[in-house]
Each structure stands twice: as C-alpha cells, then as structure tokens.
Automatic annotation (TrEMBL):
Coiled coil: none annotated. Pfam families: rve. It comes from the Bacteria. GO terms for biological process: DNA integration. Residues 31-197 form the Integrase catalytic domain. One of its GO terms (molecular function) is nucleic acid binding. Transmembrane segments: none annotated. This is Transposase. InterPro entries: Integrase_cat-core, RNaseH-like_sf, RNaseH_sf. It comes from Kluyvera georgiana ATCC 51603.
Amino acid sequence: MPAFSTVHNLMARHGLLPGTVPGIPATGRFEHDAPNRLWQMDFKGHFPFGGGRCHPLTLLDDHSRFSLCLAPCTDERRETVQQQLVSVFERYGLPDRMTMDNGAPWGDTTGVWTALELWLMRQGIRVGHSRPYHPQTQGKLERFHRSLKAEVLQGKWFADSGELQRAFEHWRTVYNLERPHEALDMAVPASRYQPSARQYSGVMVPPEYDEGVMVRKVDIIGKLSIKGISLKVGKAFRGERVGLKETQEDGCYEVWWYSTKVGVIDLKKKSITMGKEC
C-alpha cells in the first residue's frame, strides 16, 4: 500500500484536494532548471558501527535528485569532506553553486568565513547556507535522508566500514538508476542528470585584482596590515592575498578575495568586519 504522503501528493497534483488546482504544486516546490546549477550537501547525523561511528556524507543535485555522494565517513572534519568532494568533482565536474547548513565544517553561525568555503570558492563555486533551524531549506536532501534511514540504517548493525560501503553503494545505485521518483514524474534521477561541463583540475589559480586595488597577504595568525594598523581577517585566510578596495567614505575599504567581498575595514575606528553580510 502506498504511503499516505504519496497518495496526498498525487491527489494534490491532480486537483483532488480542497483548494488545489490541477498542475499547480500545492507545496510551492522549487527546483533548478538544469543539473549542476545547485548541489545540496549535509551529514546524515551519525550512528555506531563495528568500527566506531559513521557520519554519512550526502550530496544531491537539486534538479535531478541524483545522489552524487553517499560516503560512510568516520568524522566530520574539513579534510575528510574535501577528500570526498575531490572524488566527486573528478567524476562529475563542478557545480555552479552549493548549499549546506551553518554547522561545521562548512559553515559558521557567527558569519565568519571557513577554510572549506574558501576552498570551494577557489574552484569557482558559489556557496550558500540554509537558514538556521530551517532544515526544509534543503528539503530534497532531507527527504533523501529519511529514505536512507528507513531503507538502509534503521534496525541494522554494520560490522565494519567495508560492509557499510557496500550497503551505501548498493542503495545509491538503486536510488539513482532503478527506482522511479514521484517528483520526477516517475522517472529515475539518472535520466535527468549529466556531468558538468566545468571540469575540476586541482590547479589553484592565484587571485587577480583590478589596478588600484591594494593587495595584502594575510599572515600566519590571520592578520593583515594597512597604514600601520593590524587587523584580524581570520584563520581561514592565512597565507592568502586579499584585495583592499577604497570606498567613497574616507578611511573605509572593502576586503575582496577573488571576486567575493568578504569584509569591510574602517581605519578611523581601527576595525574590520568580516562575514557574509558585509
């Protein structure tokens, strides 16, 4: 027997529920119009297994619902995530944008830039974050997590990482290639996905700034100096070259890293404000 939610959504789609019109989604669901425009990333909690604790890293293409990554990680460190992403980028290319929540290792609730964000931005990927306490912002990934829990994790015990890997790979294959998806008009995710034309090279191209922009190298403790004043940019920028663009307001500068404004300096107050809202 199909789940209640499946029946409800089908009835809503065909205008069989009060207040609905055929062809108009009752939920206001949005998706990007092509693959690789947006990827959603998160960890699906963590649980014990024979080798310690597993932290499933998940990555989903917004347009096709194609699962790009389902990795049984043993921690949630930046280095671990980066290693998995390199494998994904080498296989599927680069997305235009990625979104994730504000937690570690990819976000910071204070609005400060993280090393993982800078690494993604260096690949030419725009980074966004879901609103705190609003998991529905990544609703497609949340649904994927519910299916993963119900069909793979719930009531199961895995003896080692090899068993976990095999279970994840098998389920991901079924999800991508075999199972019809209701939101895709019963097509499979793989039928709507194709790798990105933007290839990953691994070569880090240094930033270039316009003529007239002051360039400063951030020191080993995350600070830069301008006109004798030392200001803290943040540890994520250690060793990076940032551009300081003078504004119309006397003593004020915008801090740029590649093509992104990452902060604002006010020399009169001897202050710097770093963050995504600058």
